[in-house]
Amino acid sequence: MHAGQAPAYSSLPSVPTMHPQHGPPLPYVSLLPLTPAWINSCVGHFNHRYFFLFMAYIWTGCVYVSALSYQPFSTVAGPGAVVSGRVAYVNVSRGTQVAFTFVLTTAVTIALGLLLGWHVYLVSTAQTTIEFHTYLTLKSEAKARGERFVNPFDFGFRKNWETFFGLVEGRTFLRHVLWPSTHKPVGDGLSWRTNYTPVATAEV
């Protein structure tokens, strides 16, 4: 994971933030690892891939169950449940189970889908949530100077995903992503290769 600078209250040593006016970055930049506090910092460089796949599999399963339970749910709770002004007989226990299943999986599909989509965007653009907000400020500052901010860690859509999944040294998506794999991610989580382009370049 990338990071910019240690918080003011932290006892950790400070690491310089990447700013657009600093010129070309070094080939490798040492950064402090930051993990989300709201998940107790349990997701980091070496298990980020597993966390993403966990979300993807859970979301796929919820979509599947929600789609299958829609018809039974509409029968139990929809207009079809009323016959000649009277409520048609439905096993209450089973009806409750169907309704609970559909409502729960649909809610998780929407909520987890938003989180998963956000992570897809972050991986595609090679940034973390913290960097996303930091880069918004850096982009505004660069634009005010007539310059363009460039994410030094962004190598393009395909390369970013290959790096994230560790698809190097002959590894494949089918064998090392869809099938269980214990291969380690690219890098050590502290030093990251940059794209060797200036962080800010004058707009043409």
Summarize the topology.
Blueprint: E1 28-30, H1 48-77, E2 82-83, E3 86-87, H2 92-124, H3 129-144, E4 147-149, H4 157-165, H5 173-178, E5 191-193, E6 200-202
Antiparallel strand pairs: 1-5, 2-3, 4-6
What topology, given as strand order, has the largest sheet? 1-5
Mean pLDDT: 77
Tally of individual helices: 5
The largest sheet, given as strand count, sense and whether it forms a barrel, is: 2 strands, antiparallel
Rg estimate, integer Å: 23 Å
By secondary-structure content and strand pairing, the structural class works out as mainly alpha
Distance between the amino and carboxyl termini: 32 Å
Strand content: 5-15%
How many DSSP-defined strands? 6
Low-confidence stretches: 3-35, 82-89
- Outline type: extended
Strand and helix order:
EHEEHHEHHEE
Helix content, binned percent: 40-55%
